[in-house]
Amino acid sequence: MTNSVKACLFDLDGVLVDTAKYHYLAWKRLAEELGFAFTEQDNERLKGVSRMASLDILLSIGGISLEEAARLELAERKNNWYVDMISKMDRSEILPGALEFLQECRNNGIKVALGSASKNAMTILNNTGLTPYFDAIVDGTKTAAAKPDPEVFTLGAAELGVSPEECIVFEDAEAGIEAAARAGMRSIGIGSEETLGEANLVIPSLEHMSYRRLSELQA
Ligand code: B16
Ligand code: MG
């Protein structure tokens, strides 16, 4: 990596917090109400995917096809259950290493932005106390196109006033790694090499990242 890193852009679910477990419980409840089973393996397909696209995947698993109005009603029903769960989140749900690395970025003058597909990102950031760590927050309420479209990260860089080559994206979803590449940014995958092999580097969690390691990447 040759360009100096001026900003880190973080995905939320799967990188800073594990909200996938709450999404899973809410989608499972919806599937059960509709009369079919929804497994944890099925839930893997929804990670990083927008709410309506997630619903479409779920309905296809159940072999159900519905008009737009009915789909919107189901998405809202699922979201209400999900919001009930995330409203009880606190600092203890921040993933290992995340807080320490965010603090290190701030201490060393690296700008920090959020780049999440979630329309509930502010609730999660406020409840976990993460909001003050960010110089810019781009979430699902600000974007028109979902990952792998690069919009969420392009907007983040613009809000921070940095160029794409100066950014590093931290992502747990394949679609997010693709979005970073399409934005002209380098990326670090959080998870397994198997699914995130296209990233510039893959680490199991932010416990394996530090300002020192970031500096080594730019050398
Ligand atoms: P909401 P991320 C994504 O968050 C989740 O991974 C994905 O499962 C969810 O469907 C999406 O946000 C939209 O969330 O229903 O709250 O708007 O990984 O982009 O931070
Ligand atoms: Mg994610």
Give a verbal description of the structure:
The chain has 219 residues and is of the alpha/beta class. It has 2 domains: 7-18 and 91-217, 3-Layer(aba) Sandwich (Rossmann fold); 20-86, Orthogonal Bundle (DNA polymerase, domain 1). 46% of the residues lie in helices and 11% in strands. The protein contains 10 helices and 6 strands; from the N terminus they run βαααααβαβαβαβαβα. The chain is globular and about 50 Å long. It starts with 6 loop residues before the first strand and ends with a helix. The relative contact order is 0.18. Magnesium ion binds next to loops. Magnesium ion is lined by residues 11, 13-15, 47-48, 172-173.
Summarize the structure.
Its cofactor is Mg(2+). One of its GO terms (molecular function) is magnesium ion binding. The protein is an alpha/beta fold.
The succession of helices and strands, N to C, reads: EHHHHHEHEHEHEHEH
**Looking at the structure, what is the overall shape?**
globular
Give the ligands present.
1,6-di-O-phosphono-beta-D-glucopyranose, magnesium ion
Oligomer: single chain
CATH homologous superfamily caption of the largest domain: HAD superfamily/HAD-like
> Could you tell me the radius of gyration in angstroms?
17 Å
Which residue ranges are poorly predicted, with pLDDT under 50 across at least 5 consecutive positions? none
Tell me about the largest β-sheet. Answer: 6 strands, parallel
- The CA-CA distance between the termini, in Å, is 7 Å
Mean pLDDT across all amino acids? 96
| Proportion of strand residues | 5-15%
**The CATH architecture of the largest domain:** 3-Layer(aba) Sandwich
Structural class: alpha/beta
GO biological process, one term: carbohydrate metabolic process
Active site: 11 (nucleophile), 13 (proton donor/acceptor)
Keywords: Magnesium, Metal-binding
Organism: Paenibacillus apis
